[in-house]
Amino acid sequence: VAGTRGLLCLLSDRIDREVLDAAGPGLKVISTMSVGFDHLALDEIKKRGIRVGYTPDVLTDATAELSVALLLSACRRLPEAAEQVKSGGWTTWKPLWMCGFGLSDSTVGIIGLGRIGQAVARRLRPFGVKKFLYTGSGPKPESAAEFGAEFVPLTRLAEESDFVVVTCALTPATQGMCNKDFFSRMKKTSVFVNTSRGAVVNQEDLYNALSQGQIAAAGLDVTTPEPLPTDHPLLSLKNCVILPHIGSATYATRSTMAVLAANNLLAGLRGEPMPHELKL
């Protein structure tokens, strides 16, 4: 990166002081092919007057679809059921075999009612969800009105939700937010889904909650670290569905993200307004 004026990176690239020092004072623009930016040392970047482009909006629908798919996979035990077919566990029809939990008449709690959180709620509503709760840095009455969603403290959301979906950004305030106290407040029949960032969750606490029956199931598209080691305790649990961070993984979305990231970079290098610039 030495001597570069512009840098195009992925969410898996850590752009820290060492990288910035290596690039030198000529670095003017960083464009990340992601909506998240917790991999960027923003304080250091701001200090050096470097502009940052990112790719919000374009992956909202794909990530919301994946969030719903993950929720359904976890609550209806789809991977477990598919494995039973392959292993010969499917014998005859039994009244309570492979039973899970349905969305009809349920309460869904969304942590972070931003673009993706709203898109998730929009897709879940036709399943017959009775009530939406949400929490975050503050109330969003205009966004919440579409779903009749109620702004509540995190503790109440944990206590009252049948399904918890995490779609917030990773910040110092949200890091490790879903921990032992949070899971202990959730219903034993509730399902937890995280498609935001792995570090929002204390994974040891989640493992204990799942293995001890404090909550019914979990679905994760994000973990700490990524990739998750194959011997990680969470992977030993039947009631935990883990995907390899594929929230935005549709051909159309990834193509759009790549073009937007390139356009952000080129506009920044020309000294023009970027299609999507992060305000530092």
From TrEMBL:
It holds the Pfam family 2-Hacid_dh_C. Residues 68-247 form the D-isomer specific 2-hydroxyacid dehydrogenase NAD-binding domain. Residues 4-278 form the D-isomer specific 2-hydroxyacid dehydrogenase catalytic domain. It comes from the Eukaryota. GO terms for molecular function: glyoxylate reductase (NADPH) activity; hydroxypyruvate reductase (NADH) activity; NAD binding. Keywords: Oxidoreductase. Belongs to the D-isomer specific 2-hydroxyacid dehydrogenase family. This is Glyoxylate reductase/hydroxypyruvate reductase. The gene is Grhpr_3.
